[in-house]
User: Fold this.
Amino acid sequence: MFNLETAISTWKRLLELIRSFRKDDIEELERHIRDVVRDKVADGMSEEEGYRTAIKQIGDIVGLESEYRKVYWDKVFSNKGVIAELTLEWNMFFNYVRIAVRNLWRNKGYTFINVFGLAAGLACVLLIGLFILDEISFDRHNEHADRIVRVLYGESQTVTPTVVGPVFARNFLEIQDWTRIYPIGMYAQVAVKRGNVTFEETGFYYADSTVFNVFTLDPVLGTAKGALNRPHTVVITETIAKKYFGDENPIGQTIQTGGNTDWEVTMVVRDIPKSSH
Amino acid sequence: MFSKQLIAASLQPIVLTILSRGEAYGYDIMQRALDLSDGKLVWTAGTLYPLMHRLETKGFISAIWRPSEAGPRRKYYRITAKGRSVLESDKSEWLSVHSILIKLWGPELAIG
Assistant:
């Protein structure tokens, strides 16, 4: 059984959901429908027919909405309503947040899956990112980092015969300079002695005097020029200098390694960054 | 029934003219236009009411909610001074178009 009031209030509810329609607009349209129905009933139609005619006259809601939306935005822009519109949006923002929180709370299971999933994903991305950053940051502190190459031997041998350096330099014009280093302390700890005190060191390297031309080593005391020109000279880092000599000036002093070989300290360099081979 | 374009173009002068004869509400305006055109001028409410808003925004008409004789309140529209001057220029435009058409069609009509 058709009921005019039910029909009209249903129709109104539909329009109230759309923001382009203001309360006044809906009321005006409602009056219109009621006027049409009244006249049609006076002409002998039923209320239902009258209502259907009225709705047909008004047109479909999509078309109606697009017309009213134009009006709405015209008003927003003509009456300096932009500020009001922005204020509304700003106020609505907190409303949206509140509704979002309520919905999250209501669907705890899904919230957990989503939040946990996102967190796990972000954590993975961050970890991978940090790992990559760490990887590519290696050896970058060297001034000539983009031009330094390491020569390997065979598939994975990181130690090459000593002759490789000079022979390569003779045969390849592209080689501007070269150096050899040998981490003697990496294979067996080196007992380093100063006076009566002995330390076991792993970071003990044999190196060519050209090591300063290839790698960037900041001098703190002494100069790179000629630092390793004589045999049995040693370049140490600040940390090592402090460890062995305290506040004394280490230049010209000696340390001993096993077999009582004397090494004269000729230069102290700034500590080499951790992100270095 | 007139074409869509003609209806859209003639809406403003017709509405303003009706309002220049006294205030009216939307349905009232529609009914009068329908009567005047012998049922040819069919507007949908979806065309009329947004137009009323636009005319109001432009300042051609003003609107006021007032209780009607029948009881429930209605939105009555009234033409403004600005609206009247716009109507005058609308009128002269339409009349000149009209006179052009009359001149063009006159002789042919006489021959036909």
About this structure: The mean pLDDT of chain A is 85. Chain A has two domains: 4-92, 147-269. DSSP finds ten helices and eight strands in chain A.
